Amino acid sequence: MTTQADEVPIELIAEHVKKGQCILFLGAGVHYPPPQGSPYEYPEAHRPPLGRAFSESLAAKCNFAARFPKESTGSLQRVALYYESKFDRNALVGEVREAVLRGKRPSPVVSALARLNFPLVITTNYDQLFEAALRDANKTPVVSVYDKDGHAPTQDYPGNLDAQEPFVVKIHGDVQAPESIVITDEDYIQFVLRMSDKEPFNPVPLTFRYQFTRWPTLFVGYSLMDYNLRLLFKTLRWKIDAAKVPATYSVDLYPDPLILDVWHNRQRYVKFIAQDVWTFVPQLYRAITGEEMPK
């Protein structure tokens, strides 16, 4: 079993980004605090909570542990479903809004990625911090938000992709569109069902699915231990010959040995970069701009 990730020359990824030919797949891990000794700061008050912390907070508010004493309070999909059933959907979305909006700011990592030449970004984050960072960088994002019911055609990019007007696809919803949030078990089941919809109702815009077969993809802020992320990735690659899919890179300091063996060594889906985001993004920023990542 493979237990170590291969070395991936950062210059290789940098060249794709410089050309504006790399898809950024942005996850919640971009909100991690910098490690001890880092020259960067990201105060806790400015950070959205990560999934487990948010799940435990919800669990405490709905007394999940008393109702399900043998289950983990860190299972967000399950805890969120119970919270919703005990209170209501509006209350659940209100908790999400409070957690990811009030007083939150983009991290130096998010701000640096927003300055780089990514014309196409897909994210499972509910917050609007990356869009805010894009606007701070004098860019105008075009945002497509997941529609749970699929009654209207999926919003696609109007024209040719432009890194100054990047296309941000919010595949699990946006906090300002309560009906779009994918958080409970039932939401994820609905999302998987929607992935089989035909044009123009498929929840993943055609522009993304087309470029996914042409440009490399860079995962930042994810762990492929996340079952739902792997399911999404496999669905996007479904019935596409491996020879037609460009390289995929995943920044993950501690990739799971089993996932590493299956996804890297055997199936060659992903090349893992064993770094944390606070090490990788400054290196990528330096390789592209020749400057240090701003603090």
For the biggest sheet, the summary is: 7 strands, parallel
Unreliable residue runs: none
Q: In order across it, which strands form the biggest sheet?
A: 3-4-2-1-5-6-7
Q: Pairing-aware structural class of the strands and helices?
A: alpha/beta
If you compute it from the alpha carbons, what radius of gyration comes out, rounded to the nearest whole angstrom? 19 Å
- Count helical runs: 12
Mean model confidence by pLDDT: 90
| Terminal Cα span | 39 Å
Question: What is the strand content?
Answer: 5-15%
Which characteristics define this entry?
single chain, 295 residues, alpha/beta, seven-stranded parallel sheet, 12 helices, 7 strands, 39% helix
